[in-house]
């Protein structure tokens, strides 16, 4: 059994981040909301140093990234009857540290034991926690060797991806989700110059991929608003709209504004719409740093009343399964019910977008989802409902020559293992779908 907090001041110091990680994992799973939202809500009261907060976040992220592997390892080392969720979550964050983080095993074990001892419902489980986590540490190699990629994907997603992409591609997707995403930047101008100044790699699509991890706010160009963080795949849909100076463009689901910034930087007059006033505030702050100006409107896009636009970007709310590398909590907090509600909303938003477009105008519909229901099928159904629109196929030259990322019908479909070649700095991209439509007439 681990020593008490009083006897062990060094691990006592590590309790704060573990307590926060435990609470965040529990609340995220209980409420089925994004980990980032729970972290933002709970971290002020934890009052941790930036370093400890970063440790808490790292524990949470890796717990969700490998929750299947961790759950399996724990189930095999626990009595079948063990169902107390708080206990299981405490064990999960302990096992996550032992198996996947560069944390001494004793620190992971002892902090978990001390957290249990401080909890009136779990204080009698300290011996069990100590024994199970020590066993996980002893048997680490066997646990990791037996952890095949599908373990960390729930069955419903595995079935969907195999049906949509076939066994091989689906397995590569699951494997890609085990790695962390790289940090990519979009620049207002001079991508090559900024890549050099930041020591990054200029990707064929025009984004910059950072090579060294560093606090974003401390990098050259942050204060002057020369660039913003945006995944390389997420940077493609706004470009497909081919925004021109002076064109009136509506960005119907705009916050926090990565794509709005691209449209404004191209010189378009942008109306940025978002249902969430709070998220729109973040957009306004982000664009102020970038010294870009747009009009904003906090309203559900379905209710927007406006003169027709030259172009519309609809980056619709979706399951976000394309962002699992960045947000592995998505895997465990979203379900098929969410997908049904989201696809219905996406169809409504597409219909509204169609009604707001001038004849001859372009509409780009995109989602950061791997699910055909939110991508390919949504685009096909839109064309059936709107015979006045045609698909404008995407050319490889528009996306840095990445012809593998274009479907037979000419839509964009990126997968997390794309742009992850032999070059060690090519660390994959978000899974994105985009279709481009033009309204007939002029
Ligand atoms: C995928 S995010 C948009 C990301 C953004 N385009 C970017 O590149 O930074 C989807 C956004 O849609 C907003 N949203 C959800 N339902 C909406 C609706 N009915 N009308 C307008 N915005 C909505 C959400 O608040 C969220 O900010």
UniProtKB/TrEMBL annotation:
Q: Which residues cross the membrane?
A: none
Record InterPro entries:
MeTrfase_RsmB-F_NOP2_cat (IPR049560), MeTrfase_RsmB-F_NOP2_dom (IPR001678), NusB-like_sf (IPR035926), NusB_RsmB_TIM44 (IPR006027), RCMT (IPR023267), SAM-dependent_MTases_sf (IPR029063)
What protein is this chain from? RsmB/NOP family class I SAM-dependent RNA methyltransferase
* rRNA-binding listed as a keyword: no
Segments forming domain SAM-dependent MTase RsmB/NOP-type? 162-440
Entry similarity comment: Belongs to the class I-like SAM-binding methyltransferase superfamily. RsmB/NOP family.
Q: Which GO terms describe its biological process?
A: regulation of DNA-templated transcription; RNA methylation
UniProt keywords (A-Z) are: Methyltransferase, RNA-binding, S-adenosyl-L-methionine, Transferase
């Amino acid at each position: 059994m681990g020593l008490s907090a009083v006897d062990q001041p060094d691990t006592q110091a590590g309790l704060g981040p573990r307590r926060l990680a435990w609470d965040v994992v529990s609340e995220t799973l209980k409420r089925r909301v994004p980990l980032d939202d729970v972290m933002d809500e709970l971290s002020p009261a934890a009052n941790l140093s930036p370093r400890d907060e970063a440790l808490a976040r790292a524990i949470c992220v890796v717990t969700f990234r490998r929750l299947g592997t961790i759950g399996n390892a724990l189930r095999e080392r626990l009595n079948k009857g063990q169902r107390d969720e708080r206990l299981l979550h405490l064990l999960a964050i302990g096992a996550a540290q032992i198996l996947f983080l560069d944390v001494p095993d004793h620190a992971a074990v002892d902090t978990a034991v001390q957290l249990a001892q401080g909890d009136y419902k779990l204080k009698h489980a300290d011996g069990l926690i100590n024994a199970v986590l020590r066993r996980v540490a002893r048997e680490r190699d066997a646990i990791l060797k037996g952890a095949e990629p599908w373990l960390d994907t729930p069955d419903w997603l595995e079935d969907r991806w195999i049906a949509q992409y076939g066994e091989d591609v689906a397995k590569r997707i699951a494997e890609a989700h085990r790695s962390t995403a790289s940090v990519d930047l979009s620049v207002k101008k001079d991508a090559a110059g900024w890549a050099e100044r930041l020591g990054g790699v200029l990707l064929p699509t025009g984004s910059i991929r950072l090579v060294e991890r560093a606090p974003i706010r401390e990098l050259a160009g942050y204060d002057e608003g020369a660039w913003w963080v945006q995944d390389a795949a997420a940077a493609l849909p706004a470009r497909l709209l081919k925004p021109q100076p002076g064109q009136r463009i509506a960005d119907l689901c705009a916050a926090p504004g990565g794509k709005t910034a691209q449209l404004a930087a191209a010189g378009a007059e942008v109306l940025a719409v978002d249902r969430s006033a709070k998220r729109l505030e973040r957009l306004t702050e982000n664009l102020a740093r970038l010294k870009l100006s747009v009009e904003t409107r906090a309203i559900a896009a379905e209710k927007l009343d406006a003169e027709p636009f030259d172009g519309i970007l609809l980056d619709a709310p979706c399951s976000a399964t394309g962002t699992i590398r960045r947000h592995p909590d998505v895997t465990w907090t979203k379900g098929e019910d969410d997908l049904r509600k989201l696809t219905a909303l996406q169809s409504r938003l597409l219909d509204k977008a169609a009604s707001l477009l001038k004849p001859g105008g372009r509409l780009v519909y995109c989602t950061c989802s791997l699910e055909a229901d939110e991508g390919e099928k949504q685009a096909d159904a839109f064309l059936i409902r709107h015979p006045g629109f045609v698909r404008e196929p995407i050319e490889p030259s528009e996306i840095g020559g990445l012809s593998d990322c274009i479907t037979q019908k000419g839509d964009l479909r990126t997968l997390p293992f794309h742009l992850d070649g032999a070059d060690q700095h090519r660390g994959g991209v978000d899974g994105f779908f985009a279709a481009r439509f033009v309204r007939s007439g002029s």
